[in-house]
Amino acid sequence: MSSDYYESKAFKQALAKYEEAVAQGATVYLDCDQLSDIAEYYQWTGDTSKALSTADYTLSLFEGATIPLALKARIALLNENNPEKAEQLTELIADKKDLDYFYIRAEILVATNRGEEADLFLESNMEGLDDLDRLDLVLDAAILFIDYEYVDLAKKWLEKSDETDEADYREVEGRIKFYEGDYKACECIFNQLIDKNPYNSYYWVVLASAQLAQNHLSDAITSSEYAIAINPKEEDALLYKGQALVRLKNYEEALEYFEKVSQVRSSNVEGYLNSANCLFILNRYDEGLVALRKAETRAKRHYPDRLSEIYQEEALAYSHLGEKERALACLETMEQQVETDPYELMVTRAHIYCENDDLPQAQLLYKQAVVESRYQPSVMLRVAVSLYDNNFLQVAYNILCALDPADQEKLPQAHAYMAACAHDLGLDEAFIAHLGKAVELSPSASLTVLSPLFPEGMEPQEYVKYATDNLLMK
Q1: DSSP category for residue 30
Q2: What phi and psi values does residue 84 have, to the nearest 5 degrees?
Q3: What average pLDDT does the segment 23-45 reach?
């Protein structure tokens, strides 16, 4: 449901009538569509409790209704991380030919990493649809796949549509550009969408993300502020403004926005994770670890796929504080509770030993990870990054140079770290060569790794000229 509809007179009247009746404990005289719209509105505003109670009330009057059951299924899937419950609720939908039934079935498949299966399911249900429903299915399928970052499948479904001037088409097109790394094209498309509909907060959010990816920090903050003005509970806008403020080294204000993210939806781990990273930058490790534990508690219930990241962050924080045993204990917990890449685990353990001056044990684990992975390029990159972070610059550089040139190009961060090593080692010619390659292959990786060397807000495409003029040892 478009946010524009929620501003309409008809919806506001229905919502007021519903809320007045609920407050008085009276019967609500609204049809199924009106009640379903109200349930979806509550979920859109982040009030899951009201969304569920409204959906339940709707189902008490209209058993088997599609929208309230699909809404409950999505909440089970995304908020409760319970795909089995979501499937059970979906099968209670009476009309198995309803497009929304197809969408929730497909979303459950996509959310459980079965994108190809979802694609086949939607393809099989194209037959028998009238022309209008087919048009709707095509665009909604493209939106579903891009929501879960199945870029190729999103492109496949978008190509089936000839509604190239439709806002939904343009939105998916712009988001595909974002995931392909063409942030300028994404920015251009969403600016055009905003020209036609300036009160769509989501358009401002995507625009902010594209600007943030290009390190256009002032623009990203402005776009985030427009989104927040339209919808003060727009989580991603709050998050992006906080992240832009971090890059501008305005850490205290950034913390305020990360706190707002957590307040909007307490189950969301992003606010706590970003708060933790910000607090670590400020050397407030005790507070940062508290934030990580809050993220851990919520991830266990809602986002178990984020637990590995959280345990690693905890381990690295304790390692930085010199508490090697507590750091290693975090990794033990991670190994016991979540599925973990064994080589990633070895490298993280090696990093902890290295940071805490147990170099023989670190060397043993680094070597074990490389050899047992059969010199897997991604593992060698991870080892090199760990050694770089521990100031073993020459060893890190040698490992990166030992990678096959084809593998160096496939790994987005490889040339960026080679440039960083070469700079710190005073290897001017190599620094410029790797810097140029890094910017060419992955501007976003160049920004992440190398931005501390350059003025705030500078685009990666400007790095080589600036470095040539200002950063060489000469």
Answers
A1: -
A2: -65, -45
A3: 90
User: What single-letter DSSP state applies at residue 75?
Assistant: I
Residue 391 has pLDDT above 90, yes or no: yes
399 neighbors 384 (Cβ within 8 angstroms): yes
Residue 45 CA, distance from chain mean position: 20
Tokens, residue 279: 């607090």
Question: 441 and 412 in contact (C-beta within 8 Å)?
Answer: yes
**Contact 221/189 with Cβ under 8 angstroms?**
no
Q: Which tokens go with 205?
A: 């959010």
| H-state helical runs in 114-234 | 115-124, 131-147, 151-158, 167-179, 183-196, 201-213, 217-230
In the predicted structure, residue 457 carries a pLDDT above the cut 90: no
At 303 the three-state DSSP class reads coil
* Distance, C-alpha 263 to centroid of its chain: 18
Q: How far apart are CA 239 and CA 246, in angstroms?
A: 11
One-character DSSP codes across 246-291:
HHTT-HHHHHHHHHHHHHH-TT-SHHHHHHHHHHHHTT-HHHHHHH
Average pLDDT across the chain, whole number: 93
Which pTM was predicted?
Answer: 0.86
Distance CA 138, CA 134 (A): 6
Max Cα–Cα distance, the chain, nearest Å: 81
User: What is the pLDDT at residue 473?
Assistant: 66
Residue found by looking up tokens 């976003």 in the block: 444
Check: CB of residue 213 under 8 Å from CB of residue 232.
no
